[in-house]
Write a structure and sequence with these properties.
Blueprint (H helix, E strand, L loop, with lengths): L1 H10 L1 H32 L1 H4 L5 E5 L11 E2 H8 L4 E16 L8 E9 L11 E3 L10 E5 L14 E4 L2 E9 L10 E5 H8 L5 E2 L1 E6 L5 H9 L2 H4 L1 E5 H15 L2 H30 L1 H9 L4 H34 L10 H18 L1 H8 L10
Parallel strand pairs: 4-9, 6-8
Antiparallel strand pairs: 1-11, 1-12, 2-10, 3-4, 3-7, 3-11, 5-8, 6-9, 7-8
Length: 380
């Protein structure tokens, strides 16, 4: 029956190629939309996910990591004195204007996102450093930028001078792969430098990142920290909770998650429709052949296998072509503030999904063949 399926495909190669192209493009669209969804989701909480620590403490009205509200050093002191807390370090985040002082864009400005952390603490520092070290940011005015958005910063490198909100800064480190959801370049700096850039007071901070004592129950420490809400107006979250809070805010409130999910769903629907239509048309054209097979003893199951085999002949190459389209998309948009996130394991699971979709598209054809009576072959 598999040989029969291949002969049917070989009999109409143009139809096969057109259908394969349609299914591949539909699958590729779905893969790209899924990759964008995962990429946006990762970018929304990238700093939280990659910061060492167990718990986060923030102002009670903070809805998202990127838009914090100020708390003070008194809250930091209270967190540090809470039973079960091994260490606690402050962090802050501000949006500012980067002003170019060199090159063709001298005098121009662009928006950057500045993350302030206590240099030397090992908490909140940039990761995946390709040049320089987090400790280099202890010096006043020293900053780290990310290589993925260097084109937005006129390809700034080590030693580049600039101004951020009127504060003279020098690039002392480069990281790789740190993106923000909004597409603004990410800048890391010591707390004092970040406060100066954000025009904040010396006692101002946005977050307290907490490490729990080894062996302590995280929920117990979390409960104690949340008791501060009544007097200090702060909330405590586990790292996972705060990460989800950031992702949920951007993907739900902006509608980006819904839009990308619908686009991926539409790609799947188009793939099913294209595969189903072409396969059903092919089945109708060869209905007498299938009837003849049933007349000479072939069972419905055997004939159905021939039709499913045709769908698989589309599924496997379509998945490979869709993967190629995904790779091309990744190569062309990486470094532009947009991130496609598809891991090899996920791509493998998507392959199973492609096969399932194509097989589902063959159900109508199988049902039609099962209704064919062998005697109908000899009529007319």
């Amino acid at each position: 029956m598999i040989a029969l399926a291949l002969r049917i495909i070989a009999h109409s190669p143009v139809r096969y190629l057109v259908a394969l192209l349609g299914i591949s493009v539909a699958a590729g669209l779905a893969f790209i939309q899924l990759g964008l969804y995962r990429g946006f989701k990762e970018n929304a909480s990238v700093v939280v996910d990659n910061t060492r620590g167990d718990l986060w403490v923030a102002h009670e009205h903070t809805k998202n990591f990127d838009f914090p509200k100020v708390i003070g050093t008194q809250q930091l002191d209270k967190v540090r004195s809470t039973p079960g807390v091994a260490w606690a370090y402050p962090a802050l985040i501000v949006f500012a204007q980067w002003k170019f002082l060199e090159g063709e864009r001298n005098g121009e400005e662009t928006t950057v996102q500045v993350v302030g952390f206590e240099a030397g603490s090992g908490v909140g520092e940039p990761w995946n450093m390709s040049a320089g070290f987090p400790g280099d940011l202890k010096s006043p005015g020293h900053i780290s930028i990310d290589a993925t958005m260097r084109d937005r910063l006129d390809n700034a490198g080590l030693g580049t001078l600039a101004e951020i909100n009127g504060i003279r800064v020098k690039v002392a480190g480069l990281s790789d792969g740190i993106r923000s959801f909004q597409g603004n370049p990410m800048v890391f700096a010591d707390l004092d430098t970040a406060r100066s850039i954000g025009r904040l007071r010396a006692e101002d901070l946005h977050y307290v990142i907490v490490g729990v004592v080894s062996g302590a129950v995280h929920d117990d420490v979390l409960g104690r920290l949340n008791q501060l809400q009544a007097t200090d107006h702060v909330n405590a979250f586990t790292k996972q909770q705060f990460s989800f809070k950031a992702q949920d805010y951007w993907l739900r409130s902006t509608g980006a998650g819904t839009a990308l999910a619908l686009a991926a769903l539409m790609g799947l629907i188009v793939g099913v429709v294209v595969a189903g239509q072409v396969l059903y048309t092919s089945t109708i054209e060869h209905l007498k052949e299938y009837g003849t097979l049933k007349a000479i003893g072939a069972s419905n199951f055997q004939v159905g296998i021939a039709i499913v085999a045709q769908s698989l002949a589309w599924a496997f190459p379509a998945h490979l072509i869709a993967g190629l389209l995904l790779w091309i998309a990744m190569r062309n948009i990486e470094g532009k503030g947009i991130h496609l996130s598809i891991e090899p394991a996920t791509y493998g699971l998507l392959g199973i999904g492609t096969v399932v979709i194509c097989v589902m598209a063959s159900i109508l054809s199988v049902w039609r063949v099962m209704r064919v009576e062998p005697a109908d072959v000899f009529k007319g």
